Amino acid sequence: xxxxxxxxxxxxxxxxxxxxxxxxxxxxxxxxxxxxxxxxxxxxxxxxxxxxxxxxxxxxxxxxxxxxxxxxxxxxxxxxxxxxxxxxxxxxxxxxxxxxxxxxxxxxxxxxxxxxxxxxxxxxxxxxxxxxxxxxxxxxxxxxxxxxxxxxxxxxxxxxxxxxxxxxxxxxxxxxxxxxxxxxxxx
Length: 187
Fold this sequence. Notes:
Radius of gyration: 16 Å
CATH topology: Multidrug-efflux Transporter 1 Regulator Bmrr, Chain A
CATH class: Alpha Beta
Shape: globular
Structural class: alpha+beta
Number of helices: 3
Largest sheet: 9 strands, antiparallel
Helix content: 10-25%
Number of domains: 1
Order of helices and strands: EEEEHEEHEEEHEE
């Protein structure tokens, strides 16, 4: 069964690293307390209920990937619901909405903890890896991606997003995980 993924164009490919240009897209997002690994589990259930019909239209929404997780930031509280830097241990976890949706046609959540937001087109540095969904794997790959960004002369614009593409029943060695960091237009 095919799952829709975020649309992007690869601008630079230096496996396992890529510079990508992402198209604008819409997210359903929720904030949760907790540690790195538990936050995704708690938020997944809330978001899954939303796409399963827990919305004003009682409309089911097709599952997409990846599931994204970022740390919440104070910047969010002051500007918009985009979470990027950690604050008080909260994590922003999101599901991408199908590309056929607009802000106007995306079902309105009935759970006030779920918000819908538009993400503009942007460049993202990415590293892809397989393995368990663990903080240890995340931190190791994050350090490598940050070093690659510095080596390329790119400028990070925001905090990392941890992207998970597979359901939990997929064996760890077949799982697709990514870390994405928004970067300034490389010119």
